[in-house]
Amino acid sequence: MEQYEPESLSAAQIAAMRRSLTSGRGALTRRSLIRASGMGALAIGGLGTLSACGIPPAKREGDAAAASDDHSAEEKQINFSNWTEYMDVTDDGKHRLTLEAFTERTGIKVKYTEDINDNVEFFGKIKPQLAAGQDTGRDIICVTDWLAARVVRLGWAQKLDASHLPHAYANLSAQFRSPDWDPGRAYSYPWAGIPAIIAYNSKATGGRKVDSVSQLLDDPKLKGRVSFLSEMRDSVGMTLLDMGKDPGNFTDADYDAAIGRLQKGVDKNQIRRFTGNDYTADLDKGDIAACVGWAGDVIQLQAGNPDIKYAIPGAGYVISSDNLLVPVKARHKTNAEKLIDYYYEPSVAAKLAAYINFVCPVDGVRDELAKIDRAMADNVLILPDKEMASRSHAFRSLTSKEETAYEEKFAKLIGA
Amino acid sequence: MTVTKEAPPAPVTAELKVRKPSTRKRLVPYWLLLPGILWLLVFFALPLVYQASTSVQTGSLEKGFEVTWHFQTYWDALTDYYPQFIRSLLYAGTATLLCLLLGYPLAYLIAFKAGRWRNVVLVLVIAPFFTSFLIRTLAWKTILADGGAVVDVLNTLHVLDVTSWLGWTESNRVLATPMAVVCGLTYNFLPFMILPLYTSLERIDGRLHEAAGDLYATPATTFRKVTFPLSMPGVVSGTLLTFIPASGDYVNAELLGSTDTKMVGSVIQTQFLRVLDYPTAAALSFILMAVVLIMVTVYIRRSGTEDLV
Amino acid sequence: MTQQQTGGDVRLTGISKTYGSFAAVKPLDLTVPQGSFFALLGASGCGKTTTLRMIAGLEEATTGTVSLGGQDITGLPPYKRPVNTVFQSYALFPHLDISENVAFGLRRRGIRSVKKQVDEMLELVQLGDFAKRKPHQLSGGQQQRVAVARALINHPQVLLLDEPLGALDLKLRRQMQLELKRIQTEVGITFIHVTHDQEEAMTMADTVAVMNGGRVEQLGAPADLYENPRTTFVANFLGTSNLIEGEVVSADTDIVVAAGGGKLRLPTDRCTAPTVNGGKLLLGVRPEKISLAHADDADVIADGRNRVTGRIVDSSFIGVSTQYVVESPAGKALQVYEQNIERDARLTPGAEVVLHWNPAHTFGLDAAQDIDAGVETVEDAA
Fold first, then answer.
1. Domain range for A103
2. For C163-190, what is the mean pLDDT?
3. Does B183 reach chain C within 8 Å, measured CB to CB?
């Protein structure tokens, strides 16, 4: 068995780890907590008494207030906030080729910042400005769909001008066209799709194939060596599918049943942990034999360990996505739209997909990607075929009330 | 009025000044305290007040939160999450004890036996801090891996049978068990124990050991009656520096533990960032703070080290 | 140790201590008679403390043995030796109160009821009211007495005192010297007292061993050492000596030495150095033995006294006496202490004078030695 050492992590694992500590519910940095409270401290301003310091409603009413003065014409620039390891770079790390090509073509400078480590943490970071109707200093942000849904719901995203997005409009994969939280993609465009699938280490399972959530939860051979994701929508969504329910359309009772099903797995020690991306190292070593994992991680793990296998459950799989949004009061909306549209050109999208290994939401990329890497073009985890796409299910968007209640229940399930 | 501009008093008036210090002079100490007080006010008192306020609010993200003096939140938080509270205190306490047991001999060796290697060893003690907390904790996943050498040895020696029976580990594995979390806590906070211990041991006059030996105390008795009592300030500050952060820690529980080992830090984090239930998160923070504060106060009182500090 | 209560002499045989290539104590033999007050006197770094620590067992001897009442204790750790030490800085236990500090040794030997003994001991050192105080609440002198009490309560066969008065101011030191002497007389235990203060050693001790460079230079009763120093070091370190270098003219019952243009004599039995006619010799005389006469009165000086002529370069009045520094062909800076009985007003700096003394007060030393050995420098005095 290969020894896992922190020093010798592959770039992919590091990327995975960074993302994980984070996009998994285990946003692990102390920073996030401190920030959350520090931000609160500053927000109180002229505090008089305890009762004087409630938290004002976050929602902004009316699009008029949200619209910003667009300075795109006179300021040829964009501020783009994205996740780490989410943009193609050259091996020496000095050049972001697709971005540089964009600047060359349009003359628009892109200030690219990798300052998103965690959805909830990032939300905490931008919340004060957005809630106060101020510019966050960012023209494009990239957040996971449930947070994108929240931002749209709160009226913090600008409506995009379809006339600036010809490629995006034409090439967006059908699979991503109409999420319930942004029908017709008025506010957002996906950057990458993130399928949750079943992954296993065939050496650890003794050559056994693992291909359903039921097996994860019931197979005694896997006892104590199964992990689920601490991302509520992925774990519960996969369980709902396994139980014959649709994560895009379920009731409170269905949700409770799925939680109950998972709780049983916890209670009988079948499930070892709920993880962020740190499952990748465990799976690689075989401490975790099988799990619900993210497709992009699995592709990267497979590159280094032939024992890593994946399965798409017969019941289907849950797909989430990271989405580009233009926040209210952003100064360069038109420029931002140009950039979004640029990444929907198949040749550009192919270059990006070849680097980040997540599902490419752009149609017509196959030939371009095949030029870069034949095998990648055939990988349904990057370019889903029709059959693959048809088995994907998005978790329905939740009301604020549901979100709180469901997260609370899920928190109890995972121990906190 | 500015303090800095004040010129030294002329010789003629010097006598007068000494007898009756000007208001200015009397205020100097307070002006000097100002930065500290401001710092405390902005970064400690205000957040605290804000948290206190948050903890008695109700509402939602959309509608906003309002102070409704809903103290029920405290009770609910406590009844919902008391296992995590007890667990936090238990794990932190165990880790603190282990840190003391491991750290004391080490600090003793550094203080009295390391000679010219002293500084080198001290640097080694804090060397782990040069890597990130997360990476250090992740390293423990390798150390305690299911198929790893440590688990193999413990298995062969049937240690894991005993610890499993005690509920510290589970069926031949250490990872994702209380033991792994306590190991991680112990490892991560060990330097916080060693450094104060070292400082207080190092301050002990070596002649006291000689005096004790001269007065018929064997080396063991000398340790029991002289060295250890004199190192109590280090023991107290070391245990506090270990216990307090350990009881609020959640990284170790997240990475090395399982659903059954979550500590209250995780709960607070989840409530704050995920569930967006700010009142519950604030209430939990307050309860944790109060519990730790009470424990620490009682502990300091009982240890009776005021004379030695 | 109870069976040893009758006690005995402390005997050091060929004992030495080297640190690497540095010999702190060169092999030495020393016997301290039972019940005596014995002082090890020397400048810092002379090996006196190391010697003491070897007796206490705090330092391992490189060679040689330590025996106590005929029993070899060289190999015993400190806690098994029937000796106790009063440390230079007292080394009181800061976390224990005074009575617990004093009781420490008794408790370690398993004695339960210590109160009576502790109270008695605190009475002995006059600290009865301080039993419940902590050491840092006491003055230096009080702490010092606690240290003595803490050691004495164990009825050691030997009490070792390592510069016990070093940290006290002069007045208190004097007082404590008498105090310690009183206690020693009262309890009758052998005291071995290490000090760099020659006055302290002479005041307190029955026997003084003067140490220098890791060896004992001379050992004897204080008066004997003072009157008959055998080396320039002892002559200079113990009090002040005027050392005059001269050439032996004749040696009979008296030795006659030519020095500074005149002739000086001394009784043969007061000379420890071998004498050869024409050979060099150092003559010594203590400042207080010398009388001073103005040059005009030279004729009235009785015959048979040693005389040296010179000129006063400095004088200082210190109450009971006046100290003069006289420049003469015999020596650059001869010291003379004159009792202030009948002061001669002519004796001021610049005055020509005659120094004269009884030849019997002269001692002779080997001229091969460093004439300034043991002279107290400013640094030592501090």
1. 62-193+321-383
2. 88
3. no
